[in-house]
Amino acid sequence: MSIKKSFLLILISISLTAFSQKKIELNDVAGRRLFVQKNITGLRSMNDGMNYTSVENQTKIVKYNYKTGNQVEVLFDLSKIENPGFIGFSDYNFSNDETKILFTTNQHPIYRHSFTADYFVWNLTTKEMTPLSTNGSQQLATFSPDGERVAFVRNNNIFVKSLKFGTESQVTRDGKTNEIINGAPDWVYEEEFSFNKAFEWSPDSKFLAFIKFNETEVPMFNMPMYQGQNPELKENQLYPGSYNYKYPKAGEKNSVVSVLVYDLKSKSSVTAETGDDTEQYIPRIKWTADASDLAIMKLNRLQNKLDIVLANPFTGDTRAFFTEKNKRYISEDFFDNFIFLPDNKYIVLNSERDGYSHLYLYDRQGFEVKQLTSGNFDVTTFYGFDPVKKIFYYQAAKESPMRREVYFVSLDGKKSGKLSTQTGTNQADFSSGFQYFINTFTNTETPNVITLHDQTGKLIRTLEENNELKKLLKDYSIGKKEFFSFKTSEGVDLNGWMIKPANFDPTRKYPVVMTQYSGPNSQSVLDKWSIGWDDFLAQEGFVVACVDPRGTGARGEEFRKMTYQQLGKFESDDQVEAAKYIGILSFVDKNNIAIWGWSYGGFMAALCMEKGAGVFKAGISVAPVTNWRFYDSVYTERYMRTPKENPDGYDDNSPLSHAEKIKGKYLIIHGSADDNVHLQNTMEFTERMVQAGVQFDMAVYTNRNHGIRGGNTSMHLYTKMTNYLKEKLQEK
């Protein structure tokens, strides 16, 4: 065969391959979810550390062996239960002795993390299914450690169900909507301290500690609710209804919180002594391993000083135990990485005191024993401690802020190393006893690969490779996500990624869409797999780029916290510089660059349109904060202090203050029932633009919350944004 003929056949083959590949449809990424990675659902390690369970089809709990990866037995099969009372479950938990299972069914959301549900208890010994309560839906149902009782919240009060006697007793009686909440956090605690359960059983099952929230003085926020569709609120057909809830904005009154300990034997409660500061936060309560004390975290309103006191559960008397201070603020990582180890001798905590997020070991008297991890990198997750081998396990961004690895270090510091082997993002789930772990690995080119390993990191078997998804992807022409970095005019190195258009031609000039979030300690530039709207836009002829500015995570405390008291300033400076850098690339049309974002990213897009007038031809803000005075107290004051203390910080980088500077085409979008970033932000900003004579486009989605989803909403939203970008950047 001649070289000429062979070359011709190769060209034909390439052409046929390109012709046969499918295009991503907008509905694939905005409506239905076509490109979905498989995970192991409902993973639970069993007490023996030799087996684990997972869920199939929301109806089965299957037991597997760690060592072999093989199925051992089906522990529960809903289809074989006569009249179970539900048709599927969204979650399950074993009692500590693994003789009972608590099922979560029929969930109805309240806020982002909270929900009501119907719970059922399955007895593995007697094969009986019983509803937890028949007196109304519940929240936060939790087994006592001895498995004899379940505590839950209903209508802002705490109840305890005796599984032995079938009786339901009421622990609190003062719960009242928009006034008193027992055992569940108020709106701002749930959203900004990232938890939805505010009660804890003592390890010996004798006490139930809980936080009481008195939100009587917290200002009320009202949102009109319309008839709408999907769901349709028929009662609002003629006159809109109103949704009212307590929302503390920056500088306003918060809930007054207290900690109580309920003694199940005496059926009485004592209030723990937490001092006279009614403005302090209590972000966590935790029992010591021997149940002798309840640790209470007390965080001052500025969030730069955290005291931990130990409370006597019988009397409520407290004694000082530990204090952490920071010249800016205590990072949220501290709350869940403060752990009493099972041996009852040591405490592990997370601190940034050396400039990076690291693990420290303390004794039960509150004295530092040693720093467990060190170096110019951030520890991102603490997995736990093996008391037999005296090994600590953790995740860190040691090799790159854009990646995650799994590591170990011994108590004496003589042994340390990396357990994960692949470059990208690794997340481990260890067995009870730490003899095995299941690792989930991904990078930009690889959907989740889930593997089973022994404690040395040795691969036992692969549990999930997402082969069906990989096969599906071969039918599509999807651009590769390429990482890059550049140095700003201030000498700061920033990381980013870029997706070039399908059939990329380096001699052409392409329009650019910059996507970002940019919020404190967030990261959008990570080596992990995803297919979404970004990929669709690249397919449609855009270069899509993303840059993490100053203030984002995994690069140490100084980089992360330099935005303190001036949110938006450095992040927007960096995004404008990123646009200028991208604009000089040979294949970029610098006159056709857009920026968009959601929530904090929407705030950033608006500010960049103002500060980068002439750099950005178009911008889209979805659900943006437009002045931090409108946002909640906990989040905003953590980074900004109060408006009274820092008025210039609030106003100098507020989009409201610079509306007249917008030169490009601008689209602003919001949900009318956004309980997080209120529509107020958009309404006040658009009025500033109106009075400044700035033309803009706007869309408000009826009765939609911060996620702007429901029915055809997502498809409509992404169609609108796609068309807007095409019209403003591609049409000549």
UniProtKB/TrEMBL annotation:
State whether keyword Hydrolase applies. yes
PROSITE patterns attached here?
Answer: PRO_ENDOPEP_SER (PS00708)
Q: List the keywords (alphabetical).
A: Glycoprotein, Hydrolase, Protease, Signal
Domain of life, per lineage: Bacteria
GO MF, one term, reads: serine-type endopeptidase activity
Q: Which InterPro entries match?
A: AB_hydrolase_fold (IPR029058), Pept_S9_AS (IPR002471), Peptidase_S9_cat (IPR001375), Peptidase_S9B_N (IPR002469), Serine_Prot_S9B/DPPIV (IPR050278)
Report the leader peptide range: 1-20
Q: Which Pfam families match?
A: DPPIV_N, Peptidase_S9
Task: Enumerate the Gene3D superfamilies for this protein.
Answer: alpha/beta hydrolase, Dipeptidylpeptidase IV, N-terminal domain
Stretches assigned to the Peptidase S9 prolyl oligopeptidase catalytic domain: 536-731
**What is this protein's name?**
Dipeptidyl peptidase IV
